[in-house]
Design a protein that fits this description.
disordered N terminus, globular, Lysosomal dipeptide transporter MFSD1, binds the ligand C[C@H](NC(=O)[C@@H](N)CCCCN)C(=O)O, Growth Hormone, Chain: A
């Protein structure tokens, strides 16, 4: 009996997996909203007159506040100082506010023919909403990582991280596959831009998928309140168990983190790897239309296979890392797959949808291998009390890529295809985009990721972080 009373709540398998299930709902909703506009790029161009650069600006807005106002870094410090309950609730609330602003901008037809600082007003305001949302979802991401370490250290940590990412990727998958059918289903008469003029016309409802995302985010916010109750019980059980509270976070901890070479290698690998995958997802449906000849309605199906594969593979690879180890090697293999896939996408041959399906599946394997090894490796390099700040610094560096690369791709796409803008301005049939240059940029990121992953493996050998060792303590 005494034995039972003295156990921590995290020793209960049901409790720790239950806690994981609840926080995964919040992240599912966040990932859905993050990518909900991706399959709508062609519609944004035809309905609202957006260019690829406008779309690039909007997509890059995700990182504006995180990067320039250091919101992510403040978020990490708040997390280490205030704890997971406060930070989780705050970040879920920020997500709801940001999504609501984005929804308002997309539904407000009067914005269509105005500009703010030279940017299409609708693009600008939707971007502000997305930038606020980006702060929320990123801080929620680091909070969830810290929650998983709190409940799963010494247990199935990589598997748990993999499962949480799998549920989040389900949100990404739905965001790629569902918006076009939703927009078509809720077609209505609304203001559109036709040859530069505002007209009332029947067309797809671009706002319908965003409204759906907003509802999911509110559910995610409510779910986090339930988690807060569980977290209080966990702390109470650990206190009753006589477990020492952690040393409080000190600002000098930041100095320790940034002087750790392993930290920088993980951060660089993170920005290079994710910049070659997440920004790619933003353009993948458009790539399918322009390179592989799919129609707008079905173009999202092939890219949606990418997160679909990760649903099963991320927990699987997480389980392998827990039991067998080989984390550094998994990261190297993932980086090699990235360069392979993007190089084939860049070649002006093999333009058949079957090749696109195969490449997207391989990219899905890479998107399972690297994250399932990378995130559980961070606690092997950084002490637990500095984890919130360390995750936030890594996400901050990553956000430079998540912000800059989509903008660069949109710009390069417009510059490499001047005929598209000319045809739009003249009201002619719009020609297809040539995606070669954007895909070369993605392949180059993959090449750099290979170099950094090799350096990380070398550093692991020198410092003995244990990245090649299993996570489960026997
Ligand atoms: C866990 C990791 N999350 C991130 O890298 C976030 N900073 C970015 C989330 C972007 C959502 N599409 C991951 O998802 O692998």
């Amino acid at each position: 009996m005494t034995e039972l009373i003295r156990r921590s709540l995290r020793d209960s398998k049901a409790a720790r997996w239950g806690a994981l299930g609840i926080i995964s709902i919040t992240m599912f909703a966040g990932y859905f909203l993050t990518d909900v506009m991706s399959p709508l790029k062609p519609m944004l161009e035809t309905e609202f007159g957006w260019s690829s650069t406008s779309y690039g600006i909007f997509t890059s807005a995700y990182g504006w506040l995180n990067v320039f106002l250091l919101m992510l870094i403040f978020g990490g410090i708040i997390l280490d100082k205030m704890g997971v309950r406060f930070t989780g609730l705050l970040s879920s609330f920020i997500m709801v506010i940001g999504a609501a602003i984005k929804y308002w901008a997309i539904t407000n037809p009067t914005l269509v023919d105005h500009t703010i600082w030279g940017i299409h007003a609708q693009v600008f305001l939707a971007s502000i909403g997305f930038a606020i949302f980006g702060v929320g979802v990123e801080i929620a991401g680091i909070t969830v990582s810290k929650i998983i370490v709190k409940w799963f250290k010494g247990y199935e940590m990589a598997l748990a991280m993999g499962m949480q990412m799998a549920v989040a990727r389900l949100g990404t998958m739905l965001a790629i596959a569902a918006p076009v059918p939703l927009a078509m289903y809720f077609s209505n008469i609304h203001t559109q831009v036709v040859n530069g003029e505002l007209v009332e016309k029947m067309g797809p409802s671009i706002s319908a998928p965003i409204a759906f995302a907003l509802v999911l985010l509110v559910i995610g916010f409510i779910a986090f309140f339930i988690y807060v109750g569980m977290d209080k019980k966990l702390d109470a059980s650990e206190a009753a168990n006589g477990e020492e509270a952690e040393d409080p976070f000190k600002f000098s901890d930041i100095g320790q983190i940034v002087t750790n070479k392993g930290f920088w290698l993980i951060a660089f690998l993170c920005v290079l790897f994710y910049s070659s995958v997440f920004p790619f997802i933003k353009y993948a449906a458009d790539l399918m239309v322009n390179k592989y000849g799919l129609d707008q309605q079905t173009a999202g199906i092939i890219p949606s296979l990418l997160p679909l594969g990760t649903l099963f593979l991320t927990p699987l690879f997480g389980g392998v890392y827990d039991k067998i180890g080989k984390g550094a090697t998994m990261m190297i293999i993932g980086a090699v797959l990235i360069i392979f896939v993007h190089t084939i996408f860049a070649l002006p041959i093999l333009n058949t949808w079957v090749v696109a399906v195969i490449l997207v599946i391989i990219l899905g394997i890479a998107l399972s291998l690297v994250p399932s090894a990378m995130w559980p490796s961070v606690p092997k390099i950084i002490p637990e009390k500095q984890l919130g700040t360390a995750f936030s610094l890594i996400f901050w560096i990553q956000n430079w890529g998540l912000m800059g690369v989509p903008l660069l791709i949109g710009y390069v796409l417009d510059k490499s295809n001047p005929q598209v803008a000319i045809a739009k301005a003249q009201g002619l049939e719009v020609p297809l985009y040539d995606y070669t240059n954007p895909m070369i940029i993605f392949a180059a990121l993959g090449f750099l990721a290979i170099i950094v992953s090799l350096l990380l493996k070398r550093e692991d050998r020198i410092k003995g972080y244990g990245l090649e060792l299993p996570n489960i303590q026997k």
